[in-house]
Design brief:
Elements (H helix, E strand, L loop, with lengths): L4 H7 L2 E6 L3 H13 L5 E5 L14 E2 L4 H11 L1 H22 L1 H4 L6 E3 L4 H8 L2 H8 L9 E4 L10 E5 L3 E2 L2 H15 L2 E4 L1 E8 L5 E7 L7 E10 L15 E10 L10 E4 L4 E6 L2 E6 L17 H15 L7 E11 L6 E6 L2 E5 L5 H15 L2
Parallel strand pairs: 1-2, 1-11, 2-8, 4-13, 11-18
Antiparallel strand pairs: 3-7, 4-6, 5-6, 9-10, 10-11, 12-15, 12-16, 13-14, 14-15, 17-18
Helix pairs in contact: 2-8, 2-10, 3-4, 4-10
Length: about 375
């Protein structure tokens, strides 16, 4: 089915197009609308709600455990690892200020990094004084301290590395707030449009080759004067040479566990295992480090082997005293690289990128969107 005359006229009217309707894309569009109130700003999203990580995440409001920071430091250097922590911390503070704790369901529970191996605990614990000194540039209280967890009944080392500044959000409430703000600002949001190809025109405008998902439309074009790409883990589908790879994250939620002994958020295995309380339920995710190559995909489906591993964590380590049944199960797509620093750049004339959130899109989104907006003229 071909587009009508009227539809085609509409599609020729965009001043700025943002590809990606997740947390970064919607906030970027809102920042741009506030900066350029008379420009027509569109957000294009291939799915109904955003099929990546924005509403398929675990709802952690965190910026990196001590073990994660040390792991990042080995990969990218200590200065960059500390800088990344600072970006996440500042971004989360900005996000909470923008929307309010109640609106996004924020809970300042603190975060525990737990260990099943006492020797691994000692390695990290011996580094926290150095990390705390390095992180005082971002806040005036220690980022980490040791905490006794013996009363929780978990099969873990008796003590954790505790981060009092971390917390959790309700992912659907955050996405709803971000979406409402974008629509109230005057953003035009188009769902169900799949962008297949980008083309730079001689005029330095950008042509988007599109298809309408779920309909029999022929291919159609959208022409934008400026283009912003906020597709995170899906970025290589449009820009194949970008240094950002898809990384699938598995997530499970249990049925209610009446005898649950803990509240808050927890990390293990350098952040590759993460879990939290949801009332009397447990949400657990991760285990990607057991199958890096398999999980380097944009298919949002479960990996049975990793699901079994997460169930084992629940039954043998987290709540060995309770019967565990899984009630919900899904997967989301993150954007990763050896460098965990986000890409916030002008890539060509009238082409801008805000991608590679490194699994920390909740914490980074408000800051990244502001920085992208600052680049656009």
């Amino acid at each position: 089915m071909a587009l009508s005359f009227w539809e085609q006229r509409w599609l020729d009217k965009a001043d700025i197009v943002v590809i990606g309707g997740g947390l970064v894309g919607l906030q970027t569009a809102t920042e741009l609308k506030n900066k350029f109130p008379h420009r027509k700003i569109w957000v294009i999203e291939s799915s109904v709600l955003g099929d990546a990580a924005s509403v398929r995440n675990a709802g952690f409001a965190c910026f990196g455990s001590a073990g994660e920071i040390l792991d990042d430091a080995e990969r990218m250097g200590l200065d960059d690892a500390l800088s990344l922590y600072g970006m996440r911390y500042q971004g989360l503070r900005k996000l909470i200020e923008k929307y309010g704790e109640t609106v996004i369901g924020y809970e300042n529970s603190g975060g525990n990094e737990i260990f099943t191996n006492p020797n691994e605990f000692e390695v990290v614990a011996n580094k926290i004084d150095d990390l705390n000194r390095g992180l005082l540039q971002f806040h005036d209280s220690p980022a980490f301290r040791i905490k006794d967890l013996t009363k929780l009944g978990m099969n873990i080392h008796s003590h954790s590395i505790f981060s009092p500044l971390e917390g959790a959000i309700q992912s659907h409430l955050l996405h709803e707030a971000v979406r409402k703000q974008a629509l109230s600002a005057g953003i035009e949001l188009f769902s169900g449009i799949h962008v297949e190809q980008l083309e730079e025109l001689p005029s330095k405008k950008w042509r988007l080759k599109c298809k309408n998902q779920g309909h029999n439309f022929n291919e159609f074009d959208i022409v934008a004067q400026k283009l912003v790409i906020c597709t995170n883990g899906y970025t290589r589908l449009l820009l194949e040479n970008e240094d950002v790879m898809p990384a699938r994250g598995q997530v499970l939620v249990t049925k209610p566990i009446p005898e649950l002994t803990f509240r808050g958020i927890f990390h293990a295995d350098k952040g590759y295992i993460y879990f939290r309380s949801l009332g009397s339920r447990i949400l657990i995710g991760g285990a990607r480090n057991l199958a890096f190559e398999e999980e380097e995909t944009t298919e949002s489906i479960s990996n049975d082997r990793l699901v079994v591993s997460l169930k084992n964590w629940l039954e043998k380590t987290i709540v060995p005293y309770a019967k565990v049944e899984i009630d919900h199960q899904w997967a989301g797509i993150m954007g990763m690289s050896n460098s965990r620093l986000p890409i916030i750049e002008q890539r060509a004339e009238n082409l801008y990128l805000g991608v590679r959130m490194g699994g920390m899109g909740v914490a980074l989104s408000a800051l990244v969107s502001q920085k992208i907006s600052d680049l656009v003229d």
